[in-house]
Write a structure and sequence with these properties.
Helix content is 39%, strand content 23%. The protein has 224 residues and is of the alpha/beta class. Strand 10, helix 5 and strand 11 (177-182) form a beta-alpha-beta unit. Helix 1 packs antiparallel against helix 2, helix 1 packs across helix 6 (183-192) and helix 2 crosses helix 3. The longest helix has 18 residues, at 53-70. The protein starts with a strand and ends with a strand. The relative contact order is 0.20.
């Protein structure tokens, strides 16, 4: 199950902050190109929020609030490498909980760890992610924790594109996900701010519905 926080004012505030600091950029005329080859009118880098104390604190507090609300039994916080690591550490400090993080692949030397931090079997853990697209890397981290015999309560993320693939993947993994904001909220906020026009809204919605097939003058696309 994937859900967006119920407080719409907070969800819009997250979208507004991310737009204002340039963590999320929209470019319809010159789409970005993802590493997957998808042409995209949006690029998201929530790591930029770490450079803005007011934004960083707002996100930290809201992530912690949602964890207490949705996963009150939490005993530890795990960050998903790499962008989920600093966010997770901030939240763990806020909640006074142990912190660990999960690499994308085992370290190639030493103990060859995939999980960094104290492994406590049956400990109830919540994962922190900055951005969810298809959910692949997030669920890989969750699987690593399961194999280490942690109990996964769920995951909290700053932003999701809201792809149907992600909903399916999290549903199959039986891991609940709570997101502070999402693509639809972002579009609403961008329209309110005059960043996009009414005509551009449908084009943006079309990308979310079928990102693999979406294109808008790929010859002039930006590669990111």
């Amino acid at each position: 199950m994937i859900k967006i926080i119920e407080n719409q004012d907070q969800s819009h505030q997250i979208a507004k902050m991310l737009l204002n600091i340039g963590a999320i950029q929209l470019s319809l005329q010159k789409p970005f190109v993802w590493s997957s080859g998808w042409n995209s009118p949006i690029y998201c880098d929530n790591r930029l929020s770490l450079s803005f104390p007011e934004v960083r604190s707002y996100i930290k507090n809201l992530l912690a609030e949602q964890i207490k609300l949705n996963y009150p039994e939490v005993e530890a916080i795990a960050g998903v490498a790499t962008a989920g690591i600093p966010q997770g550490a901030l939240v763990a400090e806020q909640l006074g909980l142990p912190f660990l993080y999960v690499r994308s692949k085992p370290k190639g030397h030493g103990m060859e760890n995939m999980i960094e931090g104290k492994i406590t079997k049956n400990q109830q853990v919540v994962l922190i992610e900055d951005l969810v697209s298809t959910g692949g890397s997030s669920l890989k981290a969750a699987q690593a924790l399961k194999e280490a015999e942690f109990k996964i309560l769920g995951m909290v993320a700053i932003f999701t594109y809201g792809f149907d693939t992600a909903r399916q993947n999290f549903g199959e993994a039986n891991i609940p996900l709570v997101c502070l904001s999402d693509y639809n909220t972002l579009i609403e906020e961008a329209l309110q701010q005059g960043i996009i026009s009414e005509k551009e809204v449908e084009l943006l919605k079309g990308w979310r519905e079928n990102p693999a097939a979406w294109t808008n003058d790929p010859q002039k696309s930006k590669v990111v």
